[in-house]
């Protein structure tokens, strides 16, 4: 299909925003948005056209717990323990991530040192870096964090999994639920504004999970594949 | 809730200011939750969509651009996409009892902006079946097939109503 044709472009964008574009067609459209500025801009236009209708619904105040959960998930406040005591819960949470982390750390450190020495072309110096390795210590992604940006580069060692995406997570030091930093690139590089959580949440580890296309369906990692330590530089 | 009021709060949120984010939540959460509840019907899912939306707003405040609409429209876009994802994930089949006329903009917006007034006029100007089909899809999150069941018309007819309705809406809004 020729997506540069205005009529087709508008028809697809309108039905995407309305929600009637479903299944494979919806996923293909999301991929198109990632690669075409024109498609993205057409989508934004239709968001402006249609989503104003959402503002006409009578407001309904959510329960107070909604705000509490948001603050917990963002690491603003401690998460209330359910059965175990808080200290014990934290300990368990930390232990869950500790095994793979120790394994990944040594390899990351070595690669990070090599890598930073060969990568002087940064608009802003990275303050923290990490390397995500597979089980055989092959580096898959190189991650740089500066005050303003998160930059992720995939390596040629990375093999995409059909119908799946990889998602990057912060594992907070306080044992709170992991916080998503977004879907990782399967090739090339991705540069985005640094999420606030990178500055506001003490970070135990970064983790990469395998997810359905588009990222985690429920806001939590589906299958954790790798973890790595952030290294201050 | 005007864009002029929300935009500074969003800017401060992008700088990591938690009190601005809390104000943004206070001013907009009832609208965002209402959109989620209308689509998802189930309280726990609407709460989940609202939580995910504000977490995304905290992380992505800096990615807002005016070309994506007003701040509130942009936030509504985020919650609608999240609600559609949750509907798909939980395999929700929508059986709405929608009263299409209840949510017409003029009834719930006593002092709408010029943009919103125009949108309301253009939607009012659609043919009845077109407006009804678009309302069902937008407010209820219904698929083409679900709109078919609701309006008891063939799939081809429903698709045509929606497509032509959207085209008419664009022509009207571009005038």
Written description of the protein model:
The complex is a heterodimer of chains A (233) and B (175). With 233 residues, chain A is α+β, with helices and mostly antiparallel strands. Helices cover 38% and strands 24% of the residues of chain A. Chain A folds into two domains: 6-56, no CATH class; 84-232, no CATH class. In chain A, a hairpin with a 3-residue loop joins strand 2 and strand 3 (149-154). Residues 82-93 and 113-122 of chain A have low confidence and may be disordered. Chain B has two domains: 1-92, RNA polymerase sigma factor, region 2, helix turn helix motif (Rna Polymerase Sigma Factor, Chain: A, Orthogonal Bundle), CATH 1.10.1740; 94-175, Arc Repressor Mutant, subunit A (Orthogonal Bundle), CATH 1.10.10.10. Chain B is built from nine helices and no strands. Classes of the chains: A alpha+beta (233), B mainly alpha (175). Chains A and B meet through helix 1, helix 3, helix 4, strand 5 and helix 6 of A and helix 2, helix 3, helix 4, helix 6 and helix 7 of B.
């Amino acid at each position: 299909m020729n997506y540069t044709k205005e009529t087709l472009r508008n028809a697809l964008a309108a039905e995407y925003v309305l929600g009637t574009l479903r299944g494979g067609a919806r996923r293909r459209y999301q991929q198109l948005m990632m690669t075409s500025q024109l498609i993205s801009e057409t989508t934004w236009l239709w968001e402006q056209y249609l989503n104003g209708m959402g503002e006409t619904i009578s407001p309904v105040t959510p329960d107070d717990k909604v705000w509490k959960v948001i603050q917990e998930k963002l690491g603003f406040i401690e998460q209330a323990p359910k059965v175990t005591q808080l200290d014990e819960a934290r300990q368990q949470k930390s232990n869950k991530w500790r095994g793979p982390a120790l394994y990944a750390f040594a390899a990351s450190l070595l690669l990070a040192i090599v890598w930073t020495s060969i990568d002087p072309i940064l608009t802003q110096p990275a303050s923290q870096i990490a390397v995500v390795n597979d089980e055989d210590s092959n580096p898959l992604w190189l991650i740089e964090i500066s005050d303003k940006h998160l930059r992720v580069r995939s390596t040629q060692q990375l093999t995409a999994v059909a119908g799946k995406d990889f998602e990057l997570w912060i594992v907070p030091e306080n044992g709170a639920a992991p916080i998503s930093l977004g879907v990782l690139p399967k090739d090339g590089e991705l540069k985005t504004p640094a999420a606030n959580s990178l500055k506001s949440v003490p970070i135990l580890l970064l983790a990469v999970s395998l997810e359905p296309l588009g990222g985690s369906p429920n806001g939590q990692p589906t299958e954790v594949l790798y973890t790595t330590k952030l290294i201050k530089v | 809730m005007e864009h002029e009021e929300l935009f500074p709060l969003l800017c401060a949120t992008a700088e990591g200011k938690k009190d601005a984010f809390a104000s943004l939540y206070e001013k907009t959460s009832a609208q965002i939750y209402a959109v989620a509840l209308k689509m998802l019907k189930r309280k726990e899912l609407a709460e989940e969509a609202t939580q995910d939306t504000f977490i995304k707003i905290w992380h992505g405040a800096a990615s807002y651009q005016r070309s994506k609409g007003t701040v509130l429209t942009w936030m509504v876009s985020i919650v609608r996409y999240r609600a559609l994802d949750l509907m798909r994930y939980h395999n929700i089949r929508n059986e709405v009892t929608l009263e299409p006329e209840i949510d017409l903009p003029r009834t719930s917006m006593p002092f709408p902006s010029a943009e919103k007034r125009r949108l309301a006029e253009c939607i009012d100007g659609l043919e009845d079946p077109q407006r009804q089909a678009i309302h069902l899809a937008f407010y209820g999150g219904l698929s083409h097939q679900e709109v078919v069941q609701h309006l008891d018309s063939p799939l081809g007819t429903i698709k045509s109503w929606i497509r032509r309705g959207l085209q008419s809406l664009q022509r009207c809004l571009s005038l």
